[in-house]
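> forwarded from #structure-qc
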């Protein structure tokens, strides 16, 4: 996984929730753009908000895949209905 790919999902507008699938089998859901933060001095590390005012630090090299949540397709344009 690259930081560029992760930032594409994170900065998409409108934002759509997505799932980080980690190499150890864990899944981490990003439900809102404010739930993910970058550490300026460690470009490979991201922080994800967790329940109970906690956070999880993730090395992006351990992210095996990113998957949209709730049937949203990343980068898909919406058709206008007439």
């Amino acid at each position: 996984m690259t930081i560029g790919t992760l930032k594409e999902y994170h900065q998409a507008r409108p934002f759509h929730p997505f799932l980080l699938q980690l190499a150890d089998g864990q899944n981490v859901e990003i439900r809102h753009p404010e739930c993910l933060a970058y550490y300026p001095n460690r470009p490979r590390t991201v922080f994800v908000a967790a329940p109970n005012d906690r956070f999880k630090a993730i090395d992006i090299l351990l992210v095996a895949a990113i998957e949209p949540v709730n049937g949203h397709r990343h980068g898909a344009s919406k058709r206008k209905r007439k």
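QC bot note: The longest strand covers residues 42-50. Residues 3-11 form the longest helix (9 residues).
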